[in-house]
Specification:
The structure holds 2 protein chains of 2 kinds. Helices cover 71% and strands 4% of the residues of chain A. By secondary structure, chain A is mainly α. In chain A, strand 2 and strand 3 form a beta hairpin. Chain B contains 12 helices and 10 strands. Classes of the chains: A mainly alpha, B alpha/beta. The complex binds adenosine-5'-triphosphate (ATP) and magnesium ion.
Chain lengths: 330, 344
Amino acid sequence: MDFISILSDAARGMFGPEAAIYALAAVGLNVHFGYTGLLNFGQVAFMLVGAYGVAVSVATWGLPLGVGVLIGIGCAVVLALVLGIPTLRLRGDYLAIATIAAGEILRYFYRSSYAQPLTGGVYGLRQFADGFYNLNPFTGTSYGFGAFTFSARSLWIMVVGWSLTVLCSLLVWLLIHAPWGRVLRAVREDELAARSLGKNVYGFKLQSLVLGGIIGALAGSLLAINVQSVQPDSYNPVVTFYLYAIVILGGASRIWGPVLGSVIFWFVVTFLDSFLRAATSSGLIPSSIIEGSDVGAVRFAFVGLGLMLLMIFKPAGILGNRKELRLDVR
Amino acid sequence: MSDEHSRPGDHRADDATVPAVPPADGNGAELTEQLDPGQLGEHDEVEEREEALEAAAAMKGSSAAAKSLEGVAAEPGSRKPDPILVADDVSRRFGGLKAVDVSHLEVQRGTITALIGPNGAGKSTFFNLVSGFDKPNTGTWSFKGTDLTGMSAYKIARLGMVRTFQLTKALMRLTTLENVMLGATGQRGEHFLPAIFKPSWSGQEADNEKRADELLERFKLTHMRDEFAGTMSGGQRKLLEMARAMMVRPSLIMLDEPMAGVNPALTQSLLGHIQALRDEGTTIVLVEHDMDVIMSISDWIICFAEGKVIAEGTPADIRSNQAVIDAYLGTSRALPADEKEPSP
Ligand SMILES: Nc1ncnc2c1ncn2[C@@H]1O[C@H](COP(=O)(O)OP(=O)(O)OP(=O)(O)O)[C@@H](O)[C@H]1O
Ligand SMILES: [Mg+2]
C-alpha cells in the first residue's frame, strides 16, 4: 500500500473539477435550504436542465456553447417558476414533494424515446464542449508537483469552476448581508411574522428559488462540460442528497459552508475509494469482506456513517454556530 | 427616547420597576425633561411628582380620546364619529362552530379600544380575519376608508395596520436589532438588484438602524441588541414584538395579549408605552384579560362572547353592564371547562 499515492489521490479529489461543481451546486442549495428554509429535494433537476441546456444547444442545434449556458439558465428560471408558483403558498412539505418528483419526471422525460431526437435519449449526447476547451489558456502537459498533478484540461475547468463558486458565494454574501437577505432569513424563521411586517413572503421565496436554481444550472452546465457528455441517469436523486450532505457538513446558512463541505466530502470520498482499492488489491482487507468491485458502494456507506457521526458530535456542521442551532429546538 | 432611567442620581438599578410616565399634552418628551433631577432632592419627592404626573397624563391623554367618543351609544355595533376600522357581517366558521360572527364593529381613530371576552370568544380569530391572516366566510371591512376584503396580509400591514400574535413569533436566529429593523417599510435594499449595490441602500439602512435603536431603548431591550432573539425570555419576546410592529409606523396597531407573561412592573411601563402611542396619534386595538389593566387604560371596550359583540362602551359602562357580567366578569368561572385551545 502506497500511502503517498492514496493521499495525493485524495488531495486531487478535494480540489478537482467535481469538488468545484458540487460546491457550486451546494451554494445554490444553501440559498434555498440554509437561508430561506425551502426544502428543495430536487436541486439535481436544476443541474439537469443546465447540463442539457448546453448539450442540446451545441450538439443538436449547433449553437455556440455560451448560448447553451444561457439557455440552461433560462430553463432553470422556468423550472423554478413552475415548481414555485403552485407550491410556495402552501406549507414547506409541498415544495419538497414537488421538487423530488420534478427531478425524476425530468430525468425520465429526457431519457424517453419521445425526447430522443433532442436529447439522445438513454444514450445522451457527447462532444459538445470543444468550444470551452478551445479557450483553454493552459498548454502544458501537466501542472502541479509530485503526485499532485492535473492535466491542462482539468486545470482549466477547475479554474473556471472554483472561480464561479467564489463569485456566486460573493454574490450570495452581498445579498444575504443586505436587507433582502434579512427578509429571506426572516422567512426561514417565521413566515407569518414576516408577513405581519408587510413582507411579500411568497415573492421572496420565489426569488430565492430562482437564484439557487440558476446557480444549480450553472453547476450542471459545468458538469456536462467536464465530462463532455450528458447521460440522464447520472442526474438521479442521490446527487441532491450528496449536496445536502455537503451543505450540512460545511454548515448550512454559512457563506463558505458549501465550499468547505464539498472539499471535505470529496477528500473523504476519494480517500476511501483509493484506500479501499489499495487495501483490497493488496489483500490487507480480504476479499471475503469487501470485493474490489464493491468499493464504489462501500465508500458511500462510510460517507453515510461519517454524516451520522457528524450529526451527533457537530450537528451545526463545521462552520456552523452551535448556539444558533440550539435556538430552533424550542 | 427620553426616559427616566438615564437620569443621574437615580439609584434604582432596575428601571423596569419605574413606571414610564405616560406623556401628557400629546408629548411625553417635554414632560419628562421638565422633571429636572437637580430641583428634586428627595427620592420620595421624585416618586410623588411622578405619580402625580402619571395620573395627570393619563387623565389628559385619555380625555382627548374620551372626548372623541362622547355621545357614542354604549351598545353593540354603535357608530363612531371618526372610525378608522369598520367591519360588517364578518363571520368565520370552524366546522360547526361559528367562531366569529360580528354584524357591525367600528374602531374610533386615536383611541385605545380593548377587546375582552372569555377564552374562545373569537377575539384572536377576529384579529386574524381583519389582518388578512385568515379568510372569513362572509363579510367586508375597511381601514381608513380602503376596502380590505380579500387583501393579502402583507399589503394590509403596508397600509399601516399591523398586528402582533398571541403566541409570540420571535425570529429566533435573527438578532434583536435585525428583528426590529425588519419592520421598516419601503426598504430599497429589499429589492434584488439594489441589494447588491450597498451604496444604494446604506443611507436608508443607517436611518432605520437609528430608529430601531430608539425603539429598543424605549422597550428596554438595548442590552439584547446583538443577541439572537431566540435567547430571549417570553416577556422580552412580547416587548420585541411590539417594538418590531412599531417599526412599521402603523396607524393602527392590534396587540393580542401584549401583557401576557410580562412582569407586573414591566406591565406598568408597557401601559405607559401604549398610552404614549395613543397620544402620538396611533390607534390601538388590544386584547387583554386583566380587568384592572383594561379598565385603567382603555378609552372604549368591546366585549365578545361566542363570536358576537355583546356589549360596547366606556370602562364605566362596561363595569355595570349586565351582559358583560353574565358572560365574562361574574359567571366566567361557571363557563364550561372544556374551552378549546386558543389559536395564535
Ligand atoms: N384554526 C382553528 N380551527 C378550529 N377552531 C378554531 C381555530 N382557531 C380558533 N378556533 C376556535 O374558535 C374559537 C375562537 O378562538 P379564538 O382563538 O379567537 O379565541 P380568543 O377569544 O382569542 O380566546 P383567548 O382569550 O383564549 O385567546 C374557539 O372556540 C376556538 O376553538
Ligand atoms: Mg386569543
